[in-house]
Amino acid sequence: MAPLKNLEQDYTIIDSNFLNFCASHGIFSVEDFLIHDLYKLAAFAEQNISSERLKEGITQVLSIIDDMHQPWLNGMELLEDAKRNKHSLPTGIQGIDFLLGGGIRVGQLTELVGPSSSGKTQVCLQTASNVASNHMGTVVYLDTGNSFSPQRIAHFLGMTNELASSEIKNQILQRVMSNILCHSVFDIFEMFDVLHKLEYRLRSQDRGVCQMRLLIIDSISLLITPVLGGTSSQGRALMVSAGYLLKKLADQHNLAVLVTNHTVGGEGGTSKPALGESWKSIPHSRLLLSCDRGSNVCNVSILKHPSMTGEDKGVRWEREINMHLDTTATAIEWALAELINNPAVLEKARQVMEKVVGNNRIVQESDTANLPYIQAII
């Protein structure tokens, strides 16, 4: 969430007096204005000795909010934009790249959906490794559950450079790792802070240096799920704001944005992507990952894609991918070990388990549909 104080350096009307006035009414960010009664706020401003300047500040913030929505575009402008962003970043996974016609699209938001241990994190790590190792640009990786693994990236690089000498392998590893910037993020407000700082950095980025090309959030549902629910609409507003900001970064700075989402129980016992209908329309593309543990065969299918129609179904909409995954037991053992190293996430998981399961019985498989936070961790 962008603090109002971040606007102080660009807008002189938003000074310490205005910030203190807003804070006295529980407004600390731009997003807070969306859920506040602005008529009452203006009435309070009238009672202040600096009423005119405060009202100018309110008008300025409202103008900033108005500028946040996507501009109107006619058909020709949309076509030109599609041509401009038509290139893709290969993931390095042949089946997925074939299915998407080259990889994840630059200028767009792509979502990977799947149950626990379906390979979402592995796709993220392999994509980051492939983009960083093939001189495509730098990668920013927001890790929300301690799932980022330098060892696994080193393993991917070793597989693609088997014939290289040890010295060359070390040089490649150092170059790739220096091009992947990982941030640990454990709540949605921290994510907003990182994204706004990233936006500022991209605006001032020197075109002569190695450009950022890929933003990964694994997993975004782990950040959004805790703020949803209840009668308040604030959580939904935060979710939509996050989606808008990600799409804005992708479009304005020519990035590919890749996020992961877990699945929850739907009608008739079938699974469906988490985060509900409001989130459904936000990603440009949605890929569903699944894995048959018996055969260790993984499949990816397209749930949504801007350049594919129903006529493509059965031809390119589903493809087996050759991707070796850890066993479920190994994945759970690894997840538990990481939880111990992250007290904040561990405490949140304990609270969720206590609320859903209670203290007097063991977790059953039937409970998993009601434990999206735990699914996202694993």
TrEMBL record:
BP term (GO), one: DNA repair
Stretches of the chain forming a coiled coil according to its record: none
ATP-binding keyword on record: yes
Keyword vocabulary terms for this entry: ATP-binding, DNA damage, DNA recombination, DNA repair, DNA-binding, Nucleotide-binding, Nucleus
Gene Ontology cellular component list: nucleus
GO molecular function: ATP binding; ATP-dependent DNA damage sensor activity; DNA binding; heme binding; iron ion binding; monooxygenase activity; oxidoreductase activity, acting on paired donors, with incorporation or reduction of molecular oxygen
Predominant location category: nucleus
Compartmental location: Nucleus
The organism's place on the tree of life at top rank: Eukaryota
Name of the protein this chain belongs to: DNA repair protein RAD51 homolog 4 isoform X1
Species for this entry: Theobroma cacao (Cacao)
